[in-house]
TrEMBL record:
Keyword flag Iron-sulfur: no
Region (Disordered): 1-21
Highest taxon of source: Eukaryota
One of the record's GO molecular function terms: oxidoreductase activity
Keyword Iron-sulfur: no
Protein name as it appears in the record: TauD/TfdA-like domain-containing protein
Domain TauD/TfdA-like residues, every copy: 71-220
Keywords: Oxidoreductase
Coiled coil: none
InterPro entries reported in the protein's UniProt record: TauD-like_sf, TauD/TfdA-like
Length: 232
C-alpha cells in the first residue's frame, strides 16, 4: 500500500473535481482510531465541584434574563473557567479524535427545564448553531419511554432502535439524564478508520460511496446529491 497522506492532502483529493477517482490510500491523523488505541482517560472528563457551581451560577444568570432557550449562548450563560475547556473540546471534536464524554453533573437535582437549559448552555460552547431535529422544527428532542409503542418511534418507546447512523449534522450532542435497566448502549466509530479498513478489504465500496448520484430523504424532503460533492 502506498504511504498515507495527511488530513489536508486527503481532503483536497476527496473534494476536488478530480478527487472522485483519486481515493487517498490511507487517512492519517487523530481522527483515525480504533477501540484498542483508546483509554477512557483520553476522552472522558469529569466536572469538578467548582465547575458545577459555575454552571449553577450561569443557570441563575440566564433565568434572570427571562430569555427563551434559543437565546442561550456563551454570553448569556457565562462559564469563566469551564467555558475555555468546552471550547477546547470543540477543537478536539473537529480536529482530534472527534468525540468527548463529560461527566460529573447530577440531573436529578434539577427540574426538567433546568436540565434542558444546562444542556443548551454547555453545548453552546461546542457549537452555537443548532439543527432541526424533526419536521416540526424542534432543535432538541427527548428520548424516553412514553408508552407510545412502535408507532411513536423508538425515541418515544422502550422498543429497541435499529442500528443507524446520525447524519445531517456536524456534531451530535446527547445529554443522558438516567440509565435504563437494560439496553441504551451507544456505539461510535472513526469514519477515517472505517475508510482505511474499506481501502484494505473492499475498495469497491469506497467507489460506490463516492458516486455523485445518491439521493437522501429527510422529513419527507428529497435531497439529490450534487455531482460536485463527493461524500464518504
Amino acid at each position: 500500500m502506498a504511504p498515507g497522506v495527511s488530513a489536508d492532502d486527503a481532503s483536497t483529493m476527496l473534494h476536488s473535481p478530480q478527487g472522485a477517482a483519486q481515493c487517498p490510500p490511507k487517512m492519517v491523523g487523530s481522527l483515525a482510531w480504533d477501540a484498542a488505541s483508546l483509554q477512557e482517560a483520553d476522552y472522558s472528563y469529569k466536572l469538578t465541584g467548582t465547575h458545577v457551581q459555575e454552571i449553577n451560577r450561569a443557570l441563575g444568570i440566564f433565568k434572570d434574563y427571562e430569555l427563551d432557550g434559543p437565546d442561550i449562548s456563551p454570553k448569556t450563560f457565562p462559564l469563566p473557567t469551564l467555558g475555555p475547556i468546552l471550547e477546547g473540546f470543540a477543537r478536539e471534536i473537529h480536529y482530534g479524535r472527534g468525540f468527548v464524554l463529560i461527566t460529573g453533573l447530577e440531573p436529578d437535582l434539577y427540574s426538567d427545564e433546568d436540565n434542558a437549559l444546562i444542556f443548551l448552555g454547555m453545548s453552546s460552547y461546542i457549537g452555537l448553531d443548532r439543527g432541526m431535529q424533526d419536521n416540526r422544527g424542534r432543535m432538541m428532542v427527548h428520548v424516553s419511554d412514553q408508552g407510545k409503542g412502535p408507532a411513536g418511534g423508538t425515541k418515544a418507546s422502550n422498543k429497541p432502535s435499529p442500528f443507524h447512523t446520525e447524519f445531517f449534522c456536524d456534531i451530535l450532542s446527547l445529554y443522558v439524564r438516567g440509565e435504563p435497566a437494560s439496553g441504551g448502549n451507544i456505539k461510535i466509530a472513526s469514519s477515517w478508520q472505517v475508510y482505511n479498513d474499506l481501502c484494505k478489504s473492499r475498495p469497491d465500496i469506497i467507489r460506490t460511496l463516492q458516486a455523485p448520484d445518491w439521493t437522501f430523504e429527510r422529513y419527507g424532503h428529497i435531497f439529490q446529491h450534487s455531482a460536485q460533492t463527493h461524500m464518504l
